[in-house]
Amino acid sequence: MDFASDNTAGASQRILDAILAANAGPAAAYGADSFSAKATELLSEVFEKEIACFLVATGTASNALALGAICPPFGAVFCHQESHIMEDECGAPEMFTAGAKLVGIPGHAGKIGGEDLAATIAAFPRGAVKQVQPAALSLSQATESGTLYSCEEISDLAAIAHGAGLEVHMDGARFANALVALPCKPADMSWRAGVDVLSFGATKNGALACEAVIFFDPAKASSLPYQRKRSGHTLSKGRFLGAQMVAYLEDGHWLGLAKTANAHAVRLAQGLAEAPGVRIVWPRQANEIFAILPRRTDTALKAAGALYYEWSSRRFDAGIAAPAQDEVFVRLVTSFATLSSDVERFVAIAQGRA
User: Fold this and answer.
1) Domain range annotation of the chain
2) What's the average model confidence in pLDDT over 35-51?
3) pLDDT tens across 104-145, in order?
4) CATH 3.40.640.10 applies to domain 13-251
5) Which residues contact residue 229 at a Cβ distance below 8 angstroms, ignoring those fewer than 6 apart?
6) 278 closest CA partner among 337, 229, 332
7) What would the CATH number be for the domain defined by 254-350?
8) Does residue 317 contact residue 17 with C-beta atoms inside 8 Å?
């Protein structure tokens, strides 16, 4: 019963098989291989647009490189105050931008609101030498609270950002889970809504280690080949990244993996909502569930071997009652590899039936 993270799941067999197949014989080095070229071609088809694509092995590299390309050292990146780039990447965005400032914005359930964004941008007037200059907006889809921006919400926020001269970045570590949950087209959740550069995640959804930095205007990607190399993220055997991405995308494999993960989360959330004393903090929208458990339930689940993370109650919005002394706030994440039997056992224990 491992619900700690979708990072704890292995890779899909189809992607592992593709890596083995790519291992046969030589291939051009440093991303000049046919697999990487095919990955870019498939991503262009998925997003219905010619793109510039740069494959890397980690989500942190993807986010940091993307922001480094669109934000100068004296710039500001506006993001949610609990976003992954703000709290979980050890200063990588600041390092890859050579010193840009991340400016956190509060918002309900992990989402930035239009009024808050506009007010924050206004607090950083252009030309004020004593302040960093507005450069980028970064949105997480799904958010760190497991919630989703609708395509309309992304479009509205991007319009505010573009109106202030900012570029728009999307951290799409769980892009597939968000996409199948809404549902909508990849283009509608990205460049058609105003996203300029996307960190397109595959690792959490079945890849071994593969992410893509996607520029929807290839002209804006001119610095990326050098930044990726300088940062140590240009793999000499880049074919193994390309092979992963090709297998991930072909025949809609990525969407099937995400649908499976989300379906397990639906069942888990339904079961927990019916468990005595359990409170669901934010609506489940993709493959993450945030819940407050009675401590006795938490104890019983852990005694049975269940794995999940306790979460910080400082993330609560106004109006949500924090955990009491006898309660625990937790995050549960499902993946393509989650077993239905584990979900049912977890639910049965939470409901006091096992």
Assistant:
1) 13-251, 254-350
2) 98
3) 999 999 999 999 999 999 999 999 999 999 999 999 999 999
4) yes
5) none
6) 332
7) 3.90.1150.10
8) no
